[in-house]
Structure formats: C-alpha cells, structure tokens
Amino acid sequence: MRTATTTVQTSAAEARPRSGERPRTVIRPTGRLWTGLHRQLALLPDHADLFYTLSAHRISVRYRQTVLGAAWAVIQPLLMMAIFTAVFSVLARMPSDGVPYPLFTYAALLPWTFFSSGLTNSTASLVNHTQLITKVYFPREILPATYIVAALFDFAIGFVVLNALLAWYGTTLTAQAVNLVPILLLLIAWLAAVALFTAALQVRWRDIGVAMPLVTQVWMFASPVIYPLSAVPAAWRPWYLLNPMAGIIESVRDVLLHGTPPDPVPLRYAVVVTACVLPLAYAFFKHAEATMADVI
Q1: How confident is the model at residue 93 (pLDDT cuts 50, 70, 90)?
Q2: d(Cα 45, Cα 56) in Å, to the nearest integer?
Q3: Which of 16, 23, 41, 108 would you call most buried, defined as having the most Cβ atoms within 10 angstroms of its Cβ?
Q4: How far is Cα 195 from Cα 215, in angstroms, rounded to an integer?
C-alpha cells in the first residue's frame, strides 16, 4: 500500500530510534492548509542536487533527436510574429506605440512564450513522473520548477534573437534594460504560482492538461501581446490589470523598446497579485501533496 506524503512532521518518540534501529522520519498529511510550510521551505536546499540534475536533464533532452535543435526555441515566436504582423499590422492596422510592429509583437511574445510553454509543461510534470512520485519522497514542487528552468533556457535564446531584431531596425538597448532582471523574476514568480496550482489539480483531474492549450490561447488574447495596453478602455483597465501578464508584458516593452522605466501602475498590479497568489498556490500544492502518491 502506498503511503501518502506531505509535510514532514516528527514527534520526539518517532524521531528517537530504538536500540539497534536506524532513525526514522514519519511523513503524514497536514491538518491545516498553512501547517508546516516554513519547514517545507527549509527542506528545499537539501534537495538542491536533485533540482540541478533534473533541470540539466530537461535542457539536455529538450531538443534531442530534432533536426533544428535549439532553433525551435525561436521558430515559434518568430513565426507568430510574422503572422501577427501580416494580420494585425498590415490588415487590421493595430497601433504599436510608435514601435515597428514586428519588434512590438516579438518583445511581447518573448515573455509570453516563456510563460505559456513553462505553464503547459509544468502542469503535466507530476503525472509524467508517476513512477518517481510513488516510489520515493522528495519535495514535489521540484518537478514543475525544473520545467520553468527549461523554459528560461528558451527565453535566453529568444532574447539573443530580440537583440538581432533591434539591430535590424537600427536601435539598441539602453541602460533601462537592466530592469528586465526584476521583471523576469516577477514573471518567474507568477509562472510558479500558476504552475503549482494547475500541477496539483492535474493529479486529480486530467482535464486540466487537456484544457491547457485552450486556456493559454484565450489568456494570450486577454494580454497585451498583439495590441498595446493603451488600447484597453480606461474603464476596463483596473480589472484588466488583475492579469499580471498585462503588467509584465507592458513593462518588458517599456524597458527594452522604449528605453524608459516601467509604468508603475501596471507593474504594481502585477506585483500585488503575484505576492497574494504565490503563497496561496504553494500552500494549496503542499496540502494536495498529502494524497498525490495515492491518487496519481
């Protein structure tokens, strides 16, 4: 019979070995949503080698046995950039805030592709490692986190292509580009929050994985990828900015294309929502971890 696993909780009697016995650690379900989260966070550094090994494995096998290899990391955003430019710039005359539309779109597709690919792969990370989860205990959040690292690798390749596009259009990055680092950290935090939630749900309801392509497609059109934030009516904007991807994408455009500091209003919305959702998502994930090995 499989043993449900979750927060490590040991009593003095359980932790103290009897004469001639090896020390034991008893892992049992938590009683409350927030119980033991600080202990779980403290355990993560002990599994750094596992995180590193799995992350390196994700990157090394990502494009194995493919003809184009890592080029696939830029083919998708470049192809979407070309399609969006033909449809929304040439035909629909979509505004682009004074920036060439291919640049305008690609700068948004760069963080969006990172988010969508990382979310899709992280959601399926637990069910794709059923044998590992049912045989050995480790913090389960390591699995979705490794797919986020792999998506970050693709982001780095795409960023090199963005620099080539900037040079093609006769522009360069300014000193404001350093602000991309905290914006990227915010994007990683938001992706982690959503991925932890969907990965935990996917264990019980496999419909989540089936619906994920549709969800990300709708989410993209609900984010300012093909249009500027200024195109959203002012009356709708407070509700629209509850989607952190809106503030993140707009901030990326500000620092990379316009060479200005990010607009504080959209960025503030993204920070506040992420700061509220991430701890809730992590607590939900650890609570669901109690029965993962039994239901997966």
Answers
A1: confident
A2: 17
A3: 108
A4: 13
Q: Which residue has the tokens 């449809």?
A: 87
Nearest to 142, CA basis, from 56, 208, 216: 56
What are the Cα distances from residue 25, in Å, to 5, 137, 246? 11, 11, 45
Q: How many residues comprise the chain?
A: 296
Domain ranges across the chain:
36-295
Question: Is residue 220 very low, low, confident or very high in pLDDT (cuts 50, 70, 90)?
Answer: very high
Per-residue pLDDT band at 14 (split at 50, 70, 90): very low
